[in-house]
């Protein structure tokens, strides 16, 4: 009786493991978006494995384990080889669709994107000292009149060049340690330049033009502390990229010396949400899109920061600005983004007046992908492009 019970438990464990492996493989195939034939292959693999298992019950346990390990590996190989979007790396596909799936589930339950929900929660002031600079670097807190800055520098460097980093967050999310890590990447990609990260005021406490005023003060601080404009590059992501464009428009309009170049990722530059991608990318954007066109919000992020100000003001929505006499810029964005047309509109305006702009759309990629997922192959390619751009401009 005891042996019978042990045999039952052993077989139950084996079959339960097989079922779990089968479910994991199917889920992976779904998230990576494989061709239909892959599902047939998986069914054949597992069907053959179960047939062998049932026919040769007396086989030793380790042989059964090896059998289904091989089936799992063959299934995984099939998934990798027969993805519908082979332009995108395996992990890029997996990350994109996992985020989309989680976001759609969250949206159905809570009525909004989990990213927007997180932004609303991240309104507390950043606590300096919660992050330690890596070996060979130091990080200093700089007090401005209304905002703060964090100056990261590599020990022993010349401290002549600087990347001025302006973070994203829809003007409602504050600075976070993600941007400290990004500052290190900017330093490494720019020949060990210093990196000055602005921690500006955000909505709902501070409405337009508070962030622009803080960005201007941060730039003036750099000029007043030994950094020449020809050695300043401004880098921004999302709302921070839009703010970078707004700041540069302001500098030009007020005859203030311009920075050497701009490095932008996924700029949010149209608070009117009037671009074509705000309609065509609703189902593909994993972060700000929606599971249905009917349920999609009018704006990807609440436009709280704008207050009652004119949304077409170029200092608020830079897509409505003019780009004569602008510094060279690099714009990188995901092709699946709701905000894609923001970048496209700015690029067309720069090209129309003969300006210098390098624009790259990454197939299958999502909002600020190289900031939040720097280990992806696409992200590494993006950082290499930043390094190349900085060497040139």
TrEMBL record:
Keywords: Hydrolase, Membrane, Transmembrane, Transmembrane helix
GO molecular function, one term: hydrolase activity
Transmembrane segments: 12-30, 36-54, 66-85
Active site per database record: 238
The protein, known as: Alpha/beta hydrolase
The family this protein is said to belong to: Belongs to the 'GDXG' lipolytic enzyme family.
Pfam families listed in its UniProt record: Abhydrolase_3
Domain Alpha/beta hydrolase fold-3: residue ranges: 164-370
């Amino acid at each position: 009786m005891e042996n019978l019970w042990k045999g039952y438990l052993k077989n139950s464990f084996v079959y339960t493991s097989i079922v779990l492996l089968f479910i994991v493989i199917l889920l992976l195939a779904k998230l990576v978006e494989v061709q239909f034939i892959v599902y047939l292959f998986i069914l054949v693999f597992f069907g053959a494995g179960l047939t062998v298992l049932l026919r040769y019950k007396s086989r030793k346990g380790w042989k059964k384990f090896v059998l289904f390990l091989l089936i799992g590996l063959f299934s995984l190989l099939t998934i990798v080889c027969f993805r519908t979007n082979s332009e995108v790396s395996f992990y890029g596909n997996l990350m994109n669709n996992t985020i989309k799936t989680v976001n759609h589930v969250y949206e159905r339950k809570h009525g909004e994107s989990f990213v927007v929900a997180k932004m609303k929660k991240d309104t507390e002031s950043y606590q300096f000292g919660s992050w330690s600079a890596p070996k060979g670097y130091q990080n200093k807190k700089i007090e401005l009149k209304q905002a703060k800055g964090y100056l990261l520098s590599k020990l022993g460097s010349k401290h002549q060049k600087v990347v001025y980093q302006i973070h994203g967050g829809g003007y409602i999310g504050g600075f976070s340690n993600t941007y400290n890590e990004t500052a290190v990447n900017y330093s490494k990609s720019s020949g060990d330049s210093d990196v000055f990260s602005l921690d500006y005021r955000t909505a709902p406490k501070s409405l337009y033009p508070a962030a622009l005023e803080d960005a201007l003060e941060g730039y003036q601080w750099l000029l007043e502390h030994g950094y020449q404009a020809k050695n300043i590059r401004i880098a921004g992501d999302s709302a921070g990229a839009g703010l970078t464009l707004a700041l540069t428009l302001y500098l030009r309009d007020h005859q203030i010396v311009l920075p050497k170049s701009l490095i932008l990722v996924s700029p949010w530059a149209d608070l009117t949400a009037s671009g074509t991608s705000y309609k065509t990318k609703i189902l593909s954007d994993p972060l700000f899109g929606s599971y249905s066109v009917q349920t999609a919000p009018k704006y990807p992020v609440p436009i709280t920061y704008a207050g009652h100000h004119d949304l077409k003001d170029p200092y608020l929505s830079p897509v409505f600005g003019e780009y004569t006499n602008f510094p060279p810029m690099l714009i990188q964005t995901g092709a699946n983004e709701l905000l894609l047309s923001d970048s496209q509109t700015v690029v067309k305006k720069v090209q129309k007046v003969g300006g210098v702009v390098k624009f790259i759309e990454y197939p299958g990629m999502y909002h600020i992908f190289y900031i939040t997922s720097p280990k992806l192959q696409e992200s590494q390619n993006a950082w290499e492009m930043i390094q190349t751009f900085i060497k040139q401009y």
